[in-house]
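Person: At home tonight, work slowly through the protein below, taking as long as you need, and write a paragraph about the fold.
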Amino acid sequence: MIRSVQPYLYVIYSLILGLFIVNTFVGNDVVEYIVGLLAIPMLGLSFYGASRLFRILGSIFIVVGLSMFMLAGLPWTQIPYHMTSTLNLLAFLTVLPWINSVVRAGLYDRRINDLMKGNVDHLGQLYMRSSLTTYILCTFLNLSAISLSQGVLLENLKNMKKRVRDSFISRTTLRAFTLALIWSPMEIMVALTVDITGVSYLVYLPWLLLTSFIVLVIDWLWGRKTFSNVEYEGNSVMSTESIELRKVATPIIQLSIALMTFLSVVVTFGNTFDLDFILAVTLVILPFSFAWALMMRRVRRFVQIGWKTWKLRTNGMQNFVVLFVSLAFFSNSLNETSFLGVIQEPFLYVSDTPLLILILIQLTYLLMSMIGMHPVATIAILGEIIQPLLEIVNPLSIGIVLITGALATASVGTYGVTVTMTSMNTEENPYRITLRNMPFSLMFGAVGVLVAFLLL
C-alpha cells in the first residue's frame, strides 16, 4: 500500500505544507495541532522511501527525542506541537525546482555551458572556465548545475586519462558549487543562518561575496598551476570551437539582473509583511519565476518543464522529510530538558576567546560531515547551542562561519549528495574525492573564520 502512495507524495506534501504556510499568517492553535498530527504519517510514508543514511539519522533523532520528551515529563498529546518547527524548510525546498525550471526554459544553462567548449591549450586554462561556468549555473540551478557541468566535462575530456579527468571534474565542479552557494538566497544554509542569527541577508551579502571571491581566485590559481602541464586532449569538435563573447555574456548579464531583482522583491516583501527570510523566499519564488517566464515569452515551456521537475523533485523529498521532521522533534524535546546546557558548556567555556568559538563551529561541521551528519542537522543543533553566544560575540561573525563551515563540507562529505553524485558520474571512489578536496575545504573554512574574526 505504501508503495502505491509513493507516486502521489507530491500531493500529500503540498497539502500539508500549504496548510502550514497558511497557518503562519492565521496563527490558529487548532490548525497548528492538525498540521503536527499530519506530519507524523508524512514522516512514516517518507521513511519507507528514504535512503539508509537518512533512515539512520531520522531514527536516532526520534529515539533520542522521545527519551528527552519522556524525561521532561511532557504529556503525549503535546507531540504534534513538536513536529512543525522545520516545515518551513520543507516548503522552501518544495518550491526551489520552479526557479531552476525558468532558467532551463530560457536555455541559459546551454548558453553558459558554451564557456567550457572554447579552444584551450591545456587543462589549466580550462579549469577557470569550468569553475566559472559551474559557479554561475549553481547560483540558480543548485545541484542540477553539477550534473550539467560534469556531463559537459565528461564529454570534453573523454580522451583524457581517467585519473586526470576524475581529478579535474571533482575539483572544478564541487569547489565552484560550494563557493556559489555561500551567498545565494536560494541556499537553505544561508536562509537558516539569517533566521538563527537575526542578521539581515543584505548585511551578510557583501562579506559572503568577498569570501567567495577570495577563495575562488585562490582556487583558480591553484587549479591552473596543478593542471597547466597537462595538454588538453578534448573532443576534436569542441576543442576547436571559439567562444562568441556576446552570446555567453548576454545570458550572464540577464541572470545577474534577474538575481538582483529577485533579492529586491524578497527583501521588500519580507519587510512589508514582517516575514522571516525563509518564508519570504518561499512565497516569492513561484510568482517571480512565472513573471520571468512571461517576460521571456516562454510560459508554456516553463510550465511544462516546471511541472515535470516539481513533481519529480517533490516525490523524491523523502530524505529531507525524514531529516527535518525528526530533527524538529529532537530539537524541541532537547529544549525542554537541561541537556542543552550541557552541550553548550564547551562553547560557553571559550566565550572569552571568540576566535576559538569560530574555530569550534568550523570543526563541528567537518567532524559531523565525516560521520554522515547532514549540515542542516548540524546547523539546527548549533543554532540552539549558540543562542547565548549571540549576545556575547558579533552575530554577523558567527553567521559567516555557520554558512562557510556548512558549505565547506559539500566538497568533502563522503556521504553527502554532491560527493555521491560526483562519484556516480565519474565512477570514482567517494573517499578519494573527499581526500582530494580536503585541503580546499580546510582553506575555505580558514578564510571564512578569518573574515569572521576581522568583523568581531
In short: The radius of gyration is 22 Å. The chain has 21 helices and no strands.
